[in-house]
């Protein structure tokens, strides 16, 4: 146990000493890793914010079914039964033309409007909620509803909300792809640093082997180096993302004033931050692991 | 302690560095291995420490067949052997003390114990006052003594020295030989290779002569 602790302590100290040996190169590598990681992390935060803002928008998927102008109360009853019979609808609500006119005049601040108009220009309407929100179901429902006899028009009010949903889903896909590509880049960057380090420390490795170092003893400092480098790179990425949010906030405040909205940008949460750090260290470790295996077997087979 | 049984070592390229060598070295012995350059002295020492593997025959160290040893077991064999190289193999990115500490760090000694042992080893070779010096600033003889300190610091049962006095003038050389004799008297088995017969200690040490890979008797 003590030996184990000693070895790990030594490996960490070696890592820090190695970084201090070439501070400029180390900083450059750390920043490269930080920037690479900040891209998916930053996009993730923006998307997370967008998702949250989208969630505060009004009901996502209600549709309005306008009845023909000449529809009779009989037609209303009939349509009511037909709508009730449709399995894909979760909810439906009848808005009589009088109610609609009253609501409209109240919204416009003209209570006399209803009285002044010779004839109510608004038709009877149903507000229906589909049971499923996917584009196919909604499109099929619209078609079914439009074919009913007393129906004049079906309006999917919040089609754009679905488009936003689709866009957000696309964004998530993009982030996944970006994260994979940049994760591989991180492994490659780490692998290269480790390779150069092994070459410069060739003599030390050779002597250590001759005086009884195990494979693990030889590898450990490099694995630590990769993991620590990844972790610090992850911390830099975190800093970049947080700084970005801080810099964007005044702009959002201006928007909030102009549009009387309550949008608040948030930075990476605790869990997401921890995941970022864990992934960064893990990828660094992995890059080091691959590189150590390859480089050691190459230099040790050449003599 | 060491036993070679018809050991042949053929290097890639076909050159036979050792031919059917059989020998035995008992625990506590001090043995000189002599022969011209290219006779196979270094090869023989490398076989003992499993740095090279025999092409045929068996090499036993403490009843272990080191020629067939698993790769993962080799480090533990080497921790019991002090190796002294003709070209020192000191590390110039650290001072004398840190060079001597390396075997102890590998073996997992606590820092406190390691420092005490390293100081004792440096004291034995008379370099305690140079512990903070970079070995590159030392003379050839002093570098060789750092190498000896590093080899004995973990108190191995077996000391293998490959032409330890090869590049040294004779006064230094006899100092170093006397040092080896002291380690031997403390119980360590010592094998020293040399191509220089003058370096062999007068007295009752056994001499093994190699000639073109074969033992001469
Ligand atoms: N790694 C190697 N590959 C090929 N030939 C080698 C190798 N090491 C040594 N030899 C050859 O083996 C012979 C014995 O070498 P060595 O054991 O170093 O002799 P000595 O130490 O007595 O000078 C020499 O002819 C040398 O050229
Ligand atoms: Mg030699």
Overview of the structural elements:
The complex is a heterodimer of chains A (303) and B (217). Chain A has 303 residues and is of the alpha+beta class. Chain A has 2 domains: 2-57 and 162-301, no CATH class; 63-156, Alpha-Beta Plaits (2-Layer Sandwich). Helix content of chain A is 73%, strand content 8%. Chain A has 10 helices and 4 strands, in the order ααβαβααβαβαααα. In chain A, helix 1 (2-21) crosses helix 9 (215-259), helix 7 (159-200) runs antiparallel to helix 9 (215-259) and helix 7 (159-200) packs parallel to helix 10 (270-300). The radius of gyration of chain A is 32 Å and the shape is elongated. The model of chain A has no long low-confidence stretch (mean pLDDT 84). With 217 residues, chain B is α/β, with parallel strands linked by helices. Chain B has a domain at 85-155. Chain B has helices at 41-48, 74-78, 96-107, 111-124, 140-152, 170-185; strands spanning 2-10, 16-25, 30-34, 56-61, 64-65, 81-84, 158-162, 189-194, 206-211, 214-216. In chain B, strand 1 (2-10) and strand 2 (16-25) form a beta hairpin. Chain A binds chain B through residues 2-3, 6-7, 10, 203-204, 206-215, 217, and chain B through 49, 51, 72, 75-79, 83, 85, 89, 91, 93, 102-103, 105-111, 150. The complex binds adenosine-5'-diphosphate and magnesium ion (MG). Adenosine-5'-diphosphate is lined by residues 11, 13, 15, 17, 35, 37-43 of chain B.
């Amino acid at each position: 146990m003590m030996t184990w602790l000693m070895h790990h302590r030594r490996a960490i100290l070696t890592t820090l000493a190695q970084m201090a040996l070439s501070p400029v190169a180390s900083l450059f590598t750390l920043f490269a890793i930080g920037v690479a990681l900040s891209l998916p992390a930053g996009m993730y935060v923006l998307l997370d914010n967008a998702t949250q803002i989208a969630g505060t928008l009004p009901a996502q998927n209600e549709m309005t079914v306008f009845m023909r102008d000449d529809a009779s109360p009989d037609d209303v009853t009939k349509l009511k039964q037909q709508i009730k019979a449709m399995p894909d609808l979760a909810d439906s609500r009848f808005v009589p033309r009088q109610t609609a006119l009253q609501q409209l005049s109240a919204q416009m601040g003209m209570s006399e409007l209803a009285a002044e108009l010779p004839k109510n220009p608004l038709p009877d309407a149903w507000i229906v909620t589909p049971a499923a929100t996917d584009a196919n179901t909604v499109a099929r429902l619209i078609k079914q509803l439009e074919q009913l006899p007393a129906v004049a028009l079906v309006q999917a009010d919040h089609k754009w909300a679905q488009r936003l949903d689709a866009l957000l889903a696309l964004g998530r896909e993009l982030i996944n792809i970006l994260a994979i590509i940049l994760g591989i880049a991180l492994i490659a960057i780490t692998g290269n640093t480790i390779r150069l380090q092994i070459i410069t420390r060739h003599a030390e490795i050779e002597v250590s082997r001759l005086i009884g170092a195990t494979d693990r003893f030889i590898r450990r400092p490099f694995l630590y180096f990769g993991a620590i480098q990844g972790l610090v790179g992850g911390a830099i990425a975190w800093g970049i993302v947080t700084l970005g949010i801080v810099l964007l906030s005044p702009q959002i405040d201006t928007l909030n004033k102009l549009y009387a909205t309550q949008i608040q940008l948030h930075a990476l949460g605790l869990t997401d931050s921890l995941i970022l750090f864990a992934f960064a260290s893990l990828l660094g470790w992995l890059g080091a692991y691959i590189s150590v295996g390859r480089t050691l077997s190459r230099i040790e087979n050449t003599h | 302690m060491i036993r070679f049984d018809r050991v042949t070592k053929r290097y890639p390229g076909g050159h036979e560095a050792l031919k059917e060598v059989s020998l035995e070295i008992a625990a506590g012995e001090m043995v000189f291995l002599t022969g011209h350059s290219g006779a196979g002295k270094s090869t023989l020492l490398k076989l003992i420490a499993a740095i090279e593997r025999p092409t045929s025959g068996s090499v036993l160290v403490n009843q272990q067949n080191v020629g067939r040893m698993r790769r993962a077991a080799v480090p533990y064999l080497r921790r019991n052997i002090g190796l002294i190289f003709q070209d020192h193999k000191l590390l110039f990115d650290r001072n004398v003390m840190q060079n001597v500490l390396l075997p102890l760090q590998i073996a997992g000694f606590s820092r406190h114990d390691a420092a005490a042992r390293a100081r004792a080893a440096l004291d034995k070779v008379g370099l305690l006052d140079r512990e903070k010096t970079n070995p590159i600033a030392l003379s050839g003889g002093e570098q060789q003594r750092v190498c000896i300190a590093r080899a004995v610091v973990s108190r191995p049962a077996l000391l293998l020295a490959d032409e330890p006095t090869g590049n040294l003038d004779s006064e230094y050389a006899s100092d170093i030989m006397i040092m080896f004799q002291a380690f031997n008297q403390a119980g360590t088995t010592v094998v020293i290779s040399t191509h220089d017969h003058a370096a062999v200690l007068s007295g009752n040490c056994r001499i093994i002569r190699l000639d073109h890979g074969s033992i001469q008797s």
